[in-house]
Amino acid sequence: MIEATDFRDAMSLLTTAVNVITTKGSSGAHGFTASAVCSVTDTPPTLLVCMNQTARSHAHFLENKTLSVNVLGAQHESISNAFTSKLCSEERFGHGAWTTLATGAPILADALVSFDCEIEDIQQVGTHSVFMCRVVAIKQGESDESLVYFNRAYHQVGQVEII
């Protein structure tokens, strides 16, 4: 049997993009920082997003049935930290400039890329909800440096100019 701590230690060595996942509905705008995001298929364009069921905004994502995946650039470490903190939702959205696309879920104006999605299916797996999300709009940013998480720390990857 694999212990949960051994699994978490091993997963810390899987480099992942850092994302802020957002939603907006009658109860306001909500969001959280996540690394558990991946492509499922390009026909139709679909992403998978995992969220802990004990997260304080979990019910809002279930109710709204929409979300946006905002892939963070190298300059967004403070935004990632804000969305993992104890700040209230309104204070979290005070970090960064936000806009919307098709669903109304908040889009970070200078994200590396944002995927605006409708949640089509939800599976409960252990402690998490797995959202299958149909991408309905995409906004690509201009940055070419990404914020990633590896070995329990932030790192920056991207194009490096050699002079």
Could you give a short description of this structure?
The protein has 163 residues and is α+β, with helices and mostly antiparallel strands. The protein has helices at 4-11, 58-64, 77-82, 89-92; strands spanning 16-17, 19-25, 28-34, 37-42, 45-52, 66-71, 98-100, 106-108, 113-125, 128-140, 145-150, 153-158.
Describe the structure.
The protein is 15% helix and 49% strand. β7 and β8 form a beta hairpin. The mean pLDDT is 96. The chain is of the alpha+beta class. The longest helix has 8 residues, at 4-11. It contains four helices and twelve strands, in the order αβββββαβααββββββ. The N and C termini lie far apart (52 Å).
Keywords:
4 helices, 163 residues, alpha+beta, globular, 12 strands, seven-stranded antiparallel sheet
What is the topological layout?
Layout lengths: L3 H8 L4 E2 L1 E7 L2 E7 L2 E6 L2 E8 L5 H7 L1 E6 L5 H6 L6 H4 L5 E3 L5 E3 L4 E13 L2 E13 L4 E6 L2 E6 L5
Antiparallel strand pairs: 1-11, 2-3, 2-6, 4-5, 5-10, 6-9, 7-8, 9-10, 11-12
